[in-house]
Amino acid sequence: MRSNWWKFLGIIILIYTVVVGMSVPLKPGIQRIDSLSIGENGNHASSISSGETHVFRVVGYNTNYAGNDNSAWLKLDSIGSVKATKFEDVSTTEANISFNIPTTFPKRDVYQSLTLVIYNREDGPSILPDAILVKVKSLSDANLGEWTTSVISGITDKPGMQFPYRSVLNETIRNTFFHIPLWFSMFIMLLISIVYSAKYLRGNDIKHDIIASSLVNVAVLFGILGIITGSIWARFTWGTFWTTDVKLNMSTVAMLIYVASLILRSSINDVDRRAKLSASYNIFAFAALIPLVFVIPRLTDSLHPGNGGNPALGGEDMENTLRMVFYPAIIGFTLLGLWMASILIRYETIKDSWLSKK
User: Fold this and answer.
1) Dist. CA 293–CA 288, nearest whole Å
2) pLDDT beneath 70, residues of the chain
3) pTM metric for this prediction
4) What does DSSP say about strands 86-89 and 80-83: parallel, antiparallel, or unpaired?
């Protein structure tokens, strides 16, 4: 019983991951903003220029605009902000907000993006970065009186634990606790496997070959599950289950290399020859895995976070509330994988012993 403590720990952590990861609500957020102002052609204005007054329809998520004292600002980086002239709640998740776009901007760019900030005591702050793009007619810094240069004050977060809202991810942000930990666990098991492959090549102990091959089998399963969960995630965020994205393709190639090793291993009957070939192939496969997954995707543009200049697991992606579930999930899935590998190791050991006596 005492020797199996890590198995129970893995189960407890995974239960914690599922329960907390799926039950904690997301913070209030802003899904989209649309201009309701009428342009010269009688249609909704397609562009926004400085010095104009615009009305925007804002659609929120997990918000409660109705019946609250709402405030809204358009923020230009850390330089200044302009407060809404009117906030009309249409429903709990929709509102019409009016802004007087300043005539002059304290930057020299012709086109400048503004961040929308909405606040009430019940929801706390909701933020939509780069909410609108403004064409600046006047590039003079002479008059900045329309901008409030002091920091927006009096804003407090909504009480309680909440996961961050991301306008593209929405509820699929919870896949962070499954898709990424599966890959982390896969890498850990593959790293352990090449240690035992190297041990076999040095000592020809068949036990080391059994451990290495069992770890690879479970790691490949986790890698396939990682690709499946990533494909489902892509369907909700990118609009398709699969793209020609270099990260997805290189990850698939890496998995195919390992699948080929399993097929090759199963086709060889001689135990010693199979073990030596498997050990050598495993080391080669891991050496190929690193550039395929970590190097090549960084050399080109990629939709996948962490590649082509697209950051991953940084402050914008991973808040402390997510870390409270994300890191335990890695431990839980790793322990689950090692448990599965230990069962496979026992099975292969008994099978090898039976065949040797036959």
Assistant:
1) 9
2) 1-2, 38-46, 79, 107-108, 138-145, 149-151, 306-317, 355-358
3) 0.86
4) unpaired
Query: Tokens 């993006």 correspond to what residue?
Result: 113
The number of beta carbons lying within 10 Å of the beta carbon of residue 292 is 21
Which pLDDT score, from 0 to 100, does residue 317 have?
63
> 15 — phi, psi (to 5°)?
-60, -45
Nearest to 216 by CA among 138, 295, 119, 281: 281
Tell me the residue length of the chain.
358
Q: Three-state SS for 220? A: helix
| Segment 151-198, tens digit of pLDDT | 677 788 888 889 999 888 889 999 999 999 999 999 999 999 999 999
Q: Which residue in this structure is represented by tokens 């920091």?
A: 151
29-135 to CATH, choices 2.60.40.10, 1.10.340.30, 3.40.50.10860, 1.10.3720.10: 2.60.40.10
Residues of the chain with CATH 2.60.40.10: 29-135
Mind spelling out the 3-state secondary structure of 229-290? HHHHHHHHHCCCCCCCCHHHHHHHHHHHHHHHHHHHHHCCCCHHHHHHHHHHHHHHHHHHHH
Q: What is the pLDDT of residues 59-111, one digit of tens each?
A: 999 999 998 999 999 998 776 889 999 999 999 999 999 999 888 887 667 88
